[in-house]
Amino acid sequence: MQVDGSRDAAATTPLAQEFVQFCVEAGVLRFGEFKTKAGRLSPYFFNAGLFDDGAKLGRLAEFYASALLDSGIGFDMLFGPAYKGIPLVAAVSVELARRGRTVPFAYNRKEAKDHGEGGTLVGAPLAGRVLIVDDVMSAGTAARESIALIQSAGAVPHGIALALDRQEKATENGRDVEHSAVQYMRDRLGLQVCTVARLADLLQYLGSTGAAEASAHHGRVLAYRERYGVDG
Description:
By secondary structure, this protein is an alpha/beta fold. It has seven helices and ten strands. It has helices at residues 14-25, 54-71, 85-98, 141-152, 181-188, 199-208, 212-228, and strands spanning 29-35, 41-46, 77-80, 105-113, 119-123, 129-133, 156-165, 171-172, 175-176, 192-198. A hairpin with a 5-residue loop joins strand 4 and strand 5 (119-123). Helix 1 packs across helix 6, helix 2 packs across helix 3 (85-98) and helix 6 (199-208) packs antiparallel against helix 7.
C-alpha cells in the first residue's frame, strides 16, 4: 500500500482493486453527474455514508486496517473528524484490535457540549502520534480542523488514512492550484498519508471489466482526470 504518495503512476494493487469493486457493488461509488465542493461536475461520487449496515462497515474497516498495517505508518491513537469520521474511526479501531493492534481513539463534536463531560472531544485523551481517519479529502477543511484540535491538545498530528484519493487539483480562493489536498497535507504539513485506493485505481478497474457501461464510465472519468487531475 502506498505511503506518502509514492504510488503515483505505479500499477494498481490487488487490495485497491478489491476495494473499488466492493464500493461499486455496494453502491458507494456511483456514476453520473455530481457537483463537487469546488463546483466541478464530476462523473463519479464516493459516498461513505452508504456504508450503512454492519456488514459493509465491517468490510470497509478491514480495508482500512490492511492498508494501514501494510503502510508501516507509526501511530499511537486514532482520531475521527465529525461526522463521517466518527463511525469510521470506531470501526477501524475495532478491526485493528481484532488483528492484535489495540489503540485508543477519539472524535470531535461540531458543537461544544455544556453539560456532562463538556467540550468538543469524545473518547481517549489526545496524546502521542495521532492518525486521522476520514473517507475522502476535497478541500481538506476537516483535516485542517482536526490538525488544529490535535495540536491544541498537545498531541502530534502524524498521519491521515483515507478510503479514496481523488487525485485532483485543490482550489484556493476559488481558483485551481497545481496540487491536491492530499499532496498539501503530505508535502506542506508533513503528514504521512495512507489511502486504500486512488482515482487511478478506479480507472484501472473500469478499464479492465470489459463491460460496455464500465467502458463509458471509464471515458468520462478519464476526461475528468485529464482536466482536473494531479499526479502522486
